[in-house]
Design a protein that fits this description.
This protein has 140 residues and is an alpha+beta fold. It folds into two domains: 67 residues, 2,3-Dihydroxybiphenyl 1,2-Dioxygenase, domain 1, CATH 3.10.180; 67 residues, Roll (2,3-Dihydroxybiphenyl 1,2-Dioxygenase, domain 1). The chain is 26% helix and 33% strand. β3 and β4 form a beta hairpin. The N and C termini lie far apart (43 Å). The mean pLDDT is 91.
C-alpha cells in the first residue's frame, strides 16, 4: 500500500528487462504491484523505491524535455547506506560482475567507506557504510 511516507525515484532505462536482470543480480527485488512492461519498481527499503522506467514512458510525462546522455553527463547520484564494509564490497562486486563499471576507487574516509559504479544505463550509484561508532568516537 502506498503511503505519504514513501519515496519513489525515477530513472530512465534503455532496456527494462536487461536492467531488471542487472539489479536482481546485485540483490534487489521488485514490487510486483508497481512493475509492468513500462516500468519496474526496485525495492530499496520498506518505503523507498527506484522506478526503472522505459525511456519513452519516462519522456511521456515531460513534454519538451530530453533525457540526458548518462554516458556523458550525470543527472543524479543514488547513494545507499549498507550494513557493513563487507556488504558494500559484496554488492559492488556483484554489480561489477553483472556489467557495471567502476566510477572511482573505493573511498575510505575513516567513518565512511564507499564504492561508486555506473549501472548499465550510466546512472551513478554509491554504496556506503557509515560507521557511527567511529564517528562518535572522533567527535569525543
Amino acid at each position: 500500500m502506498v503511503t505519504a511516507q514513501q519515496a519513489f525515484f525515477n530513472l530512465p532505462v534503455h532496456d527494462l528487462n536487461r536492467s531488471k536482470k542487472f539489479f536482481a543480480a546485485i540483490g534487489f527485488a521488485f514490487h510486483p504491484q508497481y512493475t509492468s512492461e513500462l516500468a519496474a519498481c526496485l525495492i530499496i527499503r520498506e518505503n523507498t523505491f527506484v522506478m526503472l522506467v522505459t525511456e519513452d514512458f519516462f519522456k511521456s510525462g515531460l513534454p519538451g524535455k530530453q533525457i540526458v546522455d548518462s554516458a556523458e553527463n550525470v543527472e543524479s547520484i543514488v547513494a545507499l547506506s549498507l550494513d557493513s564494509r563487507a556488504e558494500v564490497d559484496r554488492r559492488t562486486d556483484l554489480a561489477l560482475a553483472a556489467g557495471a563499471s567502476a566510477v572511482s576507487e573505493p573511498n575510505d574516509s575513516g567513518f565512511i567507506y564507499s564504492r561508486n559504479f555506473q549501472d548499465l544505463d550510466g546512472h551513478v550509484w554509491v554504496f556506503n557504510f557509515l560507521d557511527f561508532e567511529s564517528a562518535a568516537a572522533a567527535q569525543g
